[in-house]
Design brief:
About 50% of the residues lie in helices and about 5% in strands. It is mainly alpha-helical and about 100 residues long. It binds zinc ion (ZN).
């Protein structure tokens, strides 16, 4: 048995929806999200780094706009970000590191 993260009701191990509050239940959503998020951030920075799209994606809207207006700091800033993401030193708006599980 496991518990609903929304209302705390006991739900079946294989249940996809909480029968009490109707919230969707997923198995290990966190590690999956972090893994995908890193990959998406890498791809966004590689293809659209000069537009700061990867910063918008992780919630850093303020610096994303600056990056968009400066063309990724003439490309240099985007390259630094790309290296930071690859090495796992890039963080989202809440300060959580965006890392690969690979
Ligand atoms: Zn519930």
């Amino acid at each position: 048995m496991k518990f609903c993260p929304n209302c705390g009701a006991q739900v079946d191990e294989n249940a996809v929806v909480c029968v009490k509050c109707g919230v969707a239940l997923r198995n290990q959503p966190q590690s999956l999200n972090v893994d995908n998020r890193w990959l998406v951030t890498v791809l966004l920075c590689f293809f659209l780094g000069a537009l700061g799209i990867h910063r918008f994606y992780v919630g850093k809207t303020g610096t994303g706009i600056v990056q968009l207006l400066t063309g990724g700091g003439c490309g240099v800033w985007a390259i630094i970000d790309f290296i930071m993401i690859l090495t796992g030193n890039f963080t989202d708006a809440e300060g959580n590191p965006i890392k690969s599980n690979m």
